[in-house]
Amino acid sequence: MELGLKGRGALVAAASKGIGRACALGLAAEGARVAICARTRADLETAAEEIRAKTGAEVLAFPADVTRAEDVKALVEAAVRAFGRLDVLVTNAGGPPPGPFDQMTDEAFRAAFELNLLSTVRLIREALPHMRARRWGRIINIQSTSVKQPIDGLLLSNAIRPGVVGLAKTLAGELGRDGITINTVGPGRILTGRSRGVMEHRARQAGLPFEEFLKRDVAAVPLGRIGEPEEVAHVVVFLASERASYVTGVTLQVDGGLVRSLW
């Protein structure tokens, strides 16, 4: 299927590892020119070289911290300078730390808000003028299944991430007239470095060896396995494409059937 991404300008945040890197690679493989950011320059350059080597695509590696407004502004400006356009935005960031309510200070809540909600707001705000100018755009927010079903031990994620869904649903009604779609993707249990850390924390809470906890955790997934970052990326690339032109305001989990809610 021709996805209509050749020559498009795309920006993927937090793309040096895991799901972000897989999304950037997937977009580049479809012919998009891709800007990626992360806080650690060495990891970022490694990811950029990998994407170039595998796809031959033009890749801009720009060190940035998405919790800093000035970094977000500079990142979007650099992408537009490099590509002359910005058509696709994939908002993404690491998750807030696990822990129970009585361990969470005001500062912990503020940091989670900055990381997962305000970073998304700022990235969209900077990207929108460039999409509106061409009357075409795709915004995909990477969040978590916690936006549909709270995850034990991840209080901050459960409290903050649903705000991104409210933002996206509201913006879907405002941006459609400009030819811009906005959707949210909720990965479930995906095999990344960060997800392993979260699972190790939950195993300690449950008083179980990690391998025993993992076996029990996987048993809750109808497909019977942990997902791969590339499986999330395939969905993101479709939502970024011309073929997803009538999909907006949707929250789509990629979780092997883990979430049992009807909406």
Characteristics of this structure?
single chain, 263 residues, seven-stranded parallel β-sheet, 9 helices, 7 strands, globular
Describe this structure in words.
This protein has a seven-stranded parallel sheet, with helices on both faces. The relative contact order is 0.15. Helix 1 (18-29) packs parallel to helix 2, helix 3 runs parallel beside helix 4 and helix 7 (193-206) packs across helix 8. By secondary structure, it is of the alpha/beta class. The protein folds into two domains: 9-190 and 230-254, Rossmann fold; 191-226. The chain has helices at residues 18-29, 41-55, 69-83, 106-134, 155-160, 162-175, 193-206, 210-219, 229-240; strands spanning 9-12, 33-38, 59-63, 88-91, 137-142, 180-187, 251-254. It is built from nine helices and seven strands. Strand 4 (88-91), helix 4 (106-134) and strand 5 (137-142) form a beta-alpha-beta unit.
